[in-house]
Amino acid sequence: MWCSLLLLLASGPQDSGPTVELESLAGAIETRPLADFHVSDPREQDAHFVRFRGLEPPRPPVGLDDHAALVTLHSGDRVRGWVRSGAGERLVVELVGRLSIELSADEVRSVVFTSRLRGGSAPRPDPSGHGDWLYRRNGDAVPGLINGFSDEGVDFEGKRDSRTYPWRDVLAIFIEDLGEPGEAQDDARAPVFVDLAGGSRLRGRLVEIDSRGCSLAVRPGEPLLLPAAGVLEVAVRDGSFAYLSDIAPADRGPESPFGDDLGMVYAPRVDRAVVSAGPLRVAGRTWARGLGVHAPSRLTWALDGEWSQLRTWAGIDDEALEIARTGSVRFLVEVDGEERFASMVRHGGEPALELPPVDLSGARELVLEVDAASDHWVADRADWLRPILVRAP
Fold first, then answer.
1. Do residue 249 and residue 384 come from a single domain?
2. How many domains does the chain fold into?
């Protein structure tokens, strides 16, 4: 008996395998085994957010660096992946984890090959006027009409001719919004946001979440199955909360931490690190949503008095670890001119700090401030991570 007990203690905690986290609006988290999990509406489990844990992260495809692109949709969604093929009015985008999705030309606002912007001589695309636009890697901007996509490239009808521009020749395309019908309002299924590894974000109606992943209806027809390993978070978008990073601040405060004379301006970035524009990462963990800022920073939002609390995490982005100094900052929260939270000094490499819920009852103004500590400011690259406003009941 004693030998068995000692053997059990020596073996330590047993690996329970992949799990699912269910988080309520109040921040309470329940963990369940993934193997037998199934839900069609997280609110039936008193949850608004669902995350998968314990799965091996998906890997990006090999050999497609030149095809890396940001695809933005007229709905406001975005897809980060690799574009190199299509069929008629369908654009095929390959995501991390060997997942490919097809997007209708009517859904797409723009395709920008971000890999081709870095270090290239072509000017950054900035379309103006009506109609569709195609930007070539040589700097040419061609107005006209996109007729479709193929494995060879983009079929484009310009003022002078109609031709297929090879994918390798394209820097960006922009498609005019012709009034794509919105999402069906009579669908009883839960409306959700889905944040994916690699920076993609989709919205649709939730069919189900189970051990395979998230099945999402984004258009009429077969739902899209998003593998669990590639899903960062599923959030029910029923108006009960809002991501603060989706709301434009009334005042963005200082953006030149080293003085105006040097010309080094670091505007806050939504869902991206402030300097590199890479994913938000703190102590090795990637966050899909948040704000990347450079201290000293002071962001101010005008509120309507109808929010009950703010919940957020904060930390120094891992991009600071790539330079000689790792950074040190303090995080502060003000509500209607009153300080509600002030952190101790935080350093680069430390895990993200979860702030206690901040009461916003009746609040008209919210300020998130990052104060540079006493050492050098060069690495004070801070993140407000997953800031959520919860609506008053």
1. yes
2. 2
Give me the CATH number covering residue 343.
Answer: 2.60.120.1060
Of 145, 174, 203, which marks where a domain is finished? 174
Which residues neighbour 125 within 8 Å (Cβ) at sequence distance 6 or greater? 112, 133, 135, 141, 171, 172, 174
Identify whether residues 146 and 284 lie together within a single domain.
no
223-227, 258-262, 348-352: which is most confident = 348-352
Task: Tell me if residue 92 falls in helix, strand or coil.
Answer: strand
Examine residue 296 and say whether the peptide bond preceding it is cis (omega within 30 degrees of 0).
Answer: yes
Tell me the two tokens of residue 82: 């690799």
| Of residues 140 and 124, more confidently modeled | 140
Report phi then psi at 321, rounded to 5: -75, -10
pTM confidence score? 0.85
Judgement on whether residues 251 and 382 belong to the same structural domain of the protein? yes
H helices within 220-278, ranges in order? none
Domain range for 133? 65-174
Does any domain span residue 349?
yes
What tokens does 23 get?
Answer: 């988080």
Residues contacting 198, CB < 8 A, separation 6+:
58, 60, 80, 81, 95, 96, 230
Closest CA to 131 of 150, 159, 111, 100: 159
